[in-house]
Amino acid sequence: MAEWLASSNAFGNLGLVRRIDTHAASIFLSGETAWKIKRPVDLGYLDFSTPDKRRTALEAELALNRRTAPSLYKAVHPITRDKAGLLAIDGGGEAIDWILEMRRFPDGALWSELAERGALDEAALRQLADSLVGFHSRAQIAWPGDGAARIRQIIAGNAEAMGASSDILDPNAAAGLTERLNALVDHNSGLLDARGKAGRIRHVHGDLHLANIATIDGVPTPFDCLEFDAELATTDVLYDLAFLLMDLWQRGLRVQANMVFNRYLDQSPEDENAIGLMPLFMSVRASIRAHVAAVRAKRGGEAGRAGKEAVHYLELAERLIGEEKPRMIAIGGLSGTGKSTLARTLGAYVGRPPGARILRSDILRKRLAGVPSETPLPPSSYSAEASAAVYDTLGGLAQHDLAAGHAVIADAVFGTPDEREAIAEVAGRTECEFTGLWLELSEDQRIARVDRRISDASDANAEIVRAQSQKLTGKPATWEILISEGLLADLCRKARALLGLEPGSHDD
Fold first, then answer.
1. Could you give the dihedral angle defined by the CA atoms of residues 356, 362, 368 and 371, in that order, rounded to the nearest 10 degrees?
2. pLDDT per residue as tens digits for the range 338-378
3. How many CA atoms are closer than 13 Å to the CA of 265, on its beta-carbon side?
4. Average pLDDT score over the chain
5. pTM across the whole model
6. Are 377 and 365 spatial neighbours (Cβ–Cβ below 8 Å)?
7. Between vectors from CA 115 to CA 111 and to CA 121, what angle results, nearest 5°?
8. 3-class DSSP state for residue 496?
9. Of the CATH numbers 2.40.30, 1.10.1760, 3.30.200, 3.90.930, which one belongs to the domain with range 2-103?
């Protein structure tokens, strides 16, 4: 049957058919359509050994993937054989198997391919993060109180799988990783269980890496979710996100991973309290990739490359949960000096994975007002009382995140001595290192920058910039002063040098 599908006869002689095989499926690309069948395999964790089981799996794949990619997934069709033995899709004979019809997206649209070309831009990353927040908010809630037990079960399964590949994965390293992961689960067991009780364990995507995301009609679109085991795909929403972050991180796209991480938390405040779980979740995801690559290495073909990949992921899983003392960096300055741009550039290189939590006052102001981040606010939202509430919220979140072991970059004007002293005191209360960076730029240049902004959380305009210039009473005496004119790369180099984040200090 697969040979027939690989011929042009199966799809109306539309020309050359391209075949792609995976461990559990075969995909046939013909014209503007992609056709997918399940291979008759039983791998233990998935069983496609009979036509009925393959049909059930394909129908689940259709329904579940329409949650994120409704335009991509079209229908499940029977593959029939008539009395003469001729095969057809939707023919009049007996159904002998089943096939999923999908819209074919253009070559090069996969995010794994875009990542290799360095083509993942900030707008697309933000759009993807926003869509994931929306998807997770709509996903079916499980309401279990066993969040810790669930992640322990995954760790145990990973340990067993890595043990079965001891000829490729160092048994001592695998055992040490498992011990450290279980210790982290023990330390966070109360939070993990509380996440379930709060409705943050849901039926999510389950396989959210870059090769399962494509830009379709200009929209980042997750597809090919984990469809064969609903229980396995029912997990903490941040564990779902962690696969994407880990995949970006291991490719060296740390700035991009940090951008997605921060945008997700900006738009999903109910997950802010779980920031300390991210290294654990990312490490577990990397350990899964380690034993999956080890299995591939045993099959031959790409054994050498897959073996190296398995070792790489095991080492990555260890690094992702490495000890690193949290620190606080405050970036202040008047509107238009480049605070947020610098924060986004530095975030990936500060603290443990996936980099620093960037707390931006403009985002928090919109959150407190109950509006989307890019929605303009009236002048009343910038009263002294409203601004005091924003700084209080920023300080409270910073203290929580630092206490959870996560580095923080606080991005706000910090125009008064009281505001600067308050943020420094947060670091003091958590016994964390504090560095204040103050950015300066001429008024004309600041106005030019705010005038160029499009779809930004800041509501600053030329009038506000001039008013800030009049109100500022002096430079902060204990903060490092940086002139932010010229190239961003130059400013970033200066900031990294001041912070002890020289290039390569956080690289693999």
1. -110
2. 999 999 999 999 999 999 999 999 999 999 999 999 999 99
3. 25
4. 94
5. 0.94
6. yes
7. 85
8. helix
9. 3.30.200
